[in-house]
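Homework-ish question, so no full write-ups if that breaks the rules, but can someone show me the predicted structure for this set?
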Amino acid sequence: MNRSAPSPRAVGRRAAAAAMTALLLLAVAGSARPADIPLDQRRSGYADLGRDSKAMQDDDTVNPATLWVLDGETLWNQKTGLANRACADCHGDAAASMKGVAARYPAFSPARNGPIDLEQRINLCRTERQQATPLPFESRDLLALTAYVGRQSRGMPIAEASDERLKPFIDAGRKLFNQRLGQINLSCAQCHDDNWGKHIASSLVPQGHPNGYPIYRLEWQSLGSLQRRLRNCMIGMRAAPYEYGAPENVNMELFLMWRARGLSIETPAVRP
Amino acid sequence: MARPLINVPAKVKRGQVFEIKTLISHIMETGFRYSTTGKRIPRDIATFFSCSYNGEEIFRADLYPAISANPFIAFFTTATESGKLEFKWTGDNGFSETATTTITVE
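A: Not a homework solution, just the prediction itself:
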């Protein structure tokens, strides 16, 4: 084909592409993103659960996540690592020492010079204080400990991040939340800010608050972390998910906690 | 790890019907799934559950691959005498779990 004179077909294609771009630009300009969900309109995913799932979450002896919480309690009191220390040896009774902790994580870690989530905090304790190997993300033991620690904050409101050092990371999380990603070219905000309460096929689009993690997700038939859920959504958008523990995931967790500030912790929650 | 969770009222009146709720940790791998490398994941499920009240069997169930992970089994019985409720689960790969709880009948 003659390179200097493009075929009529190619010209047509280019024109069509230009028209599409113009349309897209119009669409973007026309639908300037609404602001965040007003504080008084925010609702926990619990509010949208069916009666059976609510009953499951409401009764600890029916909620399968309790199996992990009980494992977590065992691990809390179990000596481990070269230091031969249990969590309880430093922190004592979790009911007192861990109350409210999950409501203010991710928190700033001077060592990492950035935010770390609860799972990473637990693993830092393991490597530094217990001199044990870190637990892999999504391993039963790490989920159990996180659920046990998180359980101590149930009913407490998510704390508003007051640490100034966290601000740039919240902003980074917000940017990612609003950024279109993946082959489907969707941002988190397009579903969870703009279209919550509507449906994707038969599934309700929730506001996407992180107030019950780790959750027992019926689809997973297991307990899972917030990072697992985030990766899940990204795969749904046909984007390459960030690795477990990646700063992007932690920034997103941090932004989501900021976005859900004031909502009650439900850990370990049940979700469909 | 993972003790079974049993929920029965601590005290019941004689002749009263009460609920027994049980929850056990089990992956209930169906045997119908394949791994990412195409290998079949072998079946690993709990296949049997029974409950006895002072030595007498009052409830039993066979479990199948379609039952979800962490099977939750709840049922009712009539309070007759104070005593022991014993629970037993068995399954694939020699899985066996027991639990015991006491009940006071007034």
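Now go work out the reasoning yourself. Hint: The two ends of chain B are 35 Å apart (CA to CA).
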